[in-house]
Write a structure and sequence with these properties.
By secondary structure, this protein is an alpha+beta fold. The protein contains four helices and eight strands, in the order ββββαββββααα. The chain has an eight-stranded antiparallel β-sheet, with helices on both faces. A hairpin with a 5-residue loop joins strand 2 and strand 3 (40-45).
């Protein structure tokens, strides 16, 4: 059943942009999850300019990345310890450049748990109403079989009465 209410689960937090093993800079960010887009998480990085940077990727990737290394290509996520603190590292790549970001594990995990309560894993498709829409589409197709009253591609076989 499709959810007509679009719930948003947000969390403001400070990430660290890792410039080198010895140096990082704080980056305010907002994690957002929308039940109307149940497979994705959205991260907005506020870099002190008028144009924040937005990234969207699979929620499942972030859920897995809290526990073990995952991802490839543009988004890779893995847990680690930095100075005795549990953190989640996110390596993001784009044509404009690469970034390595460090997020506090406890804050990311607590936010993810809220998203998982809003839309439990395996129920994302119900939020989109895909099954209902597909059923309506197939029902309409079954009723409209008379759209093709005759074969639109005639054969070269002789018909009755043809010589």
């Amino acid at each position: 059943m499709q959810n007509t209410e679009n719930t948003v689960v947000e969390r403001e937090l400070e990430l660290k942009l890792v410039l080198s093993p010895e140096r990082s800079v704080p980056v305010p960010a907002r994690l957002a999850y929308r039940t109307g887009d149940p497979y994705a998480v959205h991260i907005t990085f506020h870099l002190g300019s008028d144009h924040p940077v937005d990234w969207t990727f699979a929620r499942e990737l972030l859920v897995e990345g809290v526990f073990r290394p995952c991802g490839h290509g543009d988004v890779r996520i893995w847990p680690t310890k930095v100075d005795g603190r549990n953190v989640v590292l996110m390596a993001l790549s784009s044509p404009d450049g690469d970034a390595l970001l460090e997020a506090p594990s406890a804050q990311v995990s607590a936010w993810l748990e809220r998203t998982l309560r809003a839309v439990p894993p395996g129920t994302e498709a119900e939020q989109l109403g895909i099954d209902d829409g597909l059923a309506r589409l197939l029902a309409a197709t079954a009723v409209s079989d008379d759209l093709w009253p005759r074969d639109p591609w005639p054969t070269d076989d002789p018909q009755d009465g043809d010589a």
